[in-house]
């Protein structure tokens, strides 16, 4: 049985103080969720990782929103894997979020370089894939996802892939309130699992956690998580207020 895993992606929101207050407000619910077999994580900005790491309950998973693929050097404004490894209990990194693909020209090749480096350091990717509205309307979703999966996962070991999280996030549904229907989300998540099976075998594919992301809210989260190939959610807007994130989580019990 695959675990249910929900991650909140804060994007460029919350100061250190706000992050601290959020964590203190959430700690109790995180323990409740764990007792219900659901793992919860958050991805604050780099600036707040240390303070969240210090004050969070043990069960709350911690992710960075990005990392650079190089070990160190002249890459102004970037953060390395070794720097993230100094943050206690940081286990995950979001890779290839559509905002990074769109605004910072990150390609699946670049994502692959990052994940190759992460494999050596034992950091787990939350690898985001998804099509734009135009691609969706042109019926190109599966072609796009296929490229993102095959190129993104190139040369990663099956042990590493088994531990990964893949987040299917149709770009047209992020922050827009326009959800992909549960049928569409299930269909694409199933397709992703099949592509992984082609690359790594069914046994590995059966273990990979696949999330849906894009306008996931307290009132629709359950629809997604009851689909056979959807094991969790990557949540943006609804993870920003502790009250809304708590409501979203408790609606799954
Ligand atoms: P949203 O963002 O929940 O605000 O649509 C999701 C994401 O970008 O991961």
Written overview of the protein:
The protein has helices spanning 16-35, 49-55, 81-85, 98-103, 108-121, 133-137, 141-152, 158-163, 182-200, 202-207, 221-225, 242-250; strands spanning 4-9, 38-43, 61-64, 90-95, 124-129, 165-168, 209-213, 232-235. Helix 2 (49-55) links the parallel strand 2 (38-43) and strand 3. It has an eight-stranded parallel β-barrel with strand order 1-2-3-4-5-6-7-8, surrounded by five helices. 45% of the residues lie in helices and 16% in strands. The protein is built from twelve helices and eight strands. The protein starts with a strand and ends with a helix. The protein has 253 residues and is an alpha/beta fold. The structure holds 2-phosphoglycolic acid. 2-phosphoglycolic acid binds at residues 9, 169, 174-175, 213-216, 234-238.
Main features:
eight-stranded parallel barrel, 253 residues, TIM Barrel, single chain, globular, alpha/beta, 12 helices, binds 2-phosphoglycolic acid
Residue stretches low in confidence (pLDDT < 50, at least 5 long) are none
Strand order of the largest sheet: 1-2-3-4-5-6-7-8
Helix and strand sequence? EHEHEHEHHEHHHEHHEHEH
Structural class: alpha/beta
- The CA-CA distance between the termini, in Å, is 17 Å
- Please name the CATH topology: TIM Barrel
**Biggest β-sheet strands, sense, barrel:** 8 strands, parallel, barrel
Rounded mean pLDDT score: 97
Quick synopsis:
This protein is an alpha/beta fold and 253 residues long. It has helices spanning 16-35, 49-55, 81-85, 98-103, 108-121, 133-137, 141-152, 158-163, 182-200, 202-207, 221-225, 242-250, and strands at residues 4-9, 38-43, 61-64, 90-95, 124-129, 165-168, 209-213, 232-235.
